[in-house]
Amino acid sequence: MKLSSATAMLETALAEAQRMGVQVCVSIVDAAAWPVAFARMEGTPLGSIDVCNKKARTAVLFQMDSADFAKIAHPDGHAYSLENTNGGLTSFGGGLVLKTTDGTVMGAIGVSGASTEDDIAIARKAALCLTS
Amino acid sequence: MKLSSATAMLETALAEAQRMGVQVCVSIVDAAAWPVAFARMEGTPLGSIDVCNKKARTAVLFQMDSADFAKIAHPDGHAYSLENTNGGLTSFGGGLVLKTTDGTVMGAIGVSGASTEDDIAIARKAALCLTS
Amino acid sequence: MKLSSATAMLETALAEAQRMGVQVCVSIVDAAAWPVAFARMEGTPLGSIDVCNKKARTAVLFQMDSADFAKIAHPDGHAYSLENTNGGLTSFGGGLVLKTTDGTVMGAIGVSGASTEDDIAIARKAALCLTS
Amino acid sequence: MKLSSATAMLETALAEAQRMGVQVCVSIVDAAAWPVAFARMEGTPLGSIDVCNKKARTAVLFQMDSADFAKIAHPDGHAYSLENTNGGLTSFGGGLVLKTTDGTVMGAIGVSGASTEDDIAIARKAALCLTS
Any idea which fold D3-131 has? Predict the structure, then answer.
C-alpha cells in the first residue's frame, strides 16, 4: 500500500462523508496490518477511532470485509469468539479488504462514525480510487 | 466538565445511594473521557470500580447512555463486538452522557454497585445537578 | 480507609493546592491498593492522572513513601527494576503511605501536577487530616 | 485541533522529510491526546509507528516537548520512571506540544523514523503551519 494511494482513498472518504453530511474517521492499513494513514473529522465520536482501526485490522487479518467476518464471528456463527482474537476485532461492517486485480491483498480500509450502512458506503467509494 | 460540577454530582449520587440504602462507586469523566472525580462507598464490591469507570467511558465515547449502547453492541444488535473496542466497554445501564442545553457533550457519569435499575436512578439524580 | 476520611483529605489537598496557586490531581487508595477517591483540578496536565494513581499505588504496595521507594528502585539503587513491577510504579515523591497510630497501613495518597516538592507538601498537608 | 490544521502540518512534514531524503511517520493528536491524523512514508521502519504516536502523546500529556520530558524522566532526572506512566512515554526528541499564541495547548505532533535531530527538525517545520 503506497502512501499516495492511501492518501487518495482518505481524501475521497472524507469528501464523501462531507457530501453525506456525516462525521467519520478513516484508517488505512497495509497488507501486514500496520497503519499507513488515518484522519478524524471534527465531531466524530471519540470511540470511533479505535473502531475504524479495528475494522481495517479485521478486514486485512482475515482477508474479508468486516461485514462478512460478522457472519462467522458471532454467537450464532461457526467461529464464535474469533472476534476476541488478535487484540479484539469488529464483527460488523465498515472494514473492506483491498486487493489488486489479480487478488493479492494490498491492505484494508476502515470507516467509523456514521451508521454502519453509511460507513460501508464511504469505504466502498474510497476503495474505488485504487482501481480507477 | 468543571471539578465543581463533578463534585456536586458526586455528592448528590452518594447522598441518593445512602438514602436508598445501597452502596455504589461513582465515576465522572470529561468530554474526552479523562477522569475528573471518583468516589467509592464502603461496602461496594471492588469489581464495581472498573465497571463504573467503563460505564462513564462508554457513554462519553459513543455519546449515548450505556443502556442504549447495549442495544447496538449486543449479539442481536447491528454492531456486535463494539463492546470489545476502546479497552472494553459496558453494554448495560448506569452510564449517562452529560450534555449542555445546546447538545454539546460535557462528559459522562457512571454508577455501579447496586442493581442496574438503582445505578441508573442514582446517575439520573446526580445528572440533574447540571441543569438545576 | 473510610470514604469520609478520604474525602476530608481530598478537600484539604485541593484547598492547599489552590492556596499555593498550583493545579494537581489527587488519588486516595485503601490498604489493598483499590481506589477510594479521586479529583482533578482544571488545568492539571492530563498525564498527571495516571501519575497520581501510580504514586498512591506505589506507596501502599511497598508501605513506604514514593520518595523513599525512589532510593531503592533506581538504576543506582539496590532494587533496580522494582519500579517495573505491579503494572509500573513511580520512583519519585508525591505518594505517601498512610498508617494508623499503631503502624497499621490504612492506604495511601498520591498527588501529581505541580513540582515534586509541591506535590509532596500537598500530600503531607492532606495526610494530617487523619491524625488531627 | 482542526483536521484542516492537522492535514496542513502532515503535508508539510512529509514534504520536508522528502526534501531531506529521509522516511518518517507523523502523528498529530488533539489537546486530550486523541489521534487526529497520521501518515507513514514507504520505507519507514515499522517500529517508528508506535514511537511517533508516543512522542505526540508524551508532549501533550505533560505539555512539554518530548526532548524536555527526557530531562526529568531520566534516571538522573527528578522524576525517574515518569516514562513508565500513561501506557509508556518517550524520553527523547521528536514530539512537540502545540499551543495557541495565548499559550493554550492545542495538541501535539510526533515524528519518528529518521535521526532524532531530523525528526525534531521536521516536527518544527510542520508546527510553523499553525502560526503562519
Answer: Beta-Lactamase (3.30.450)
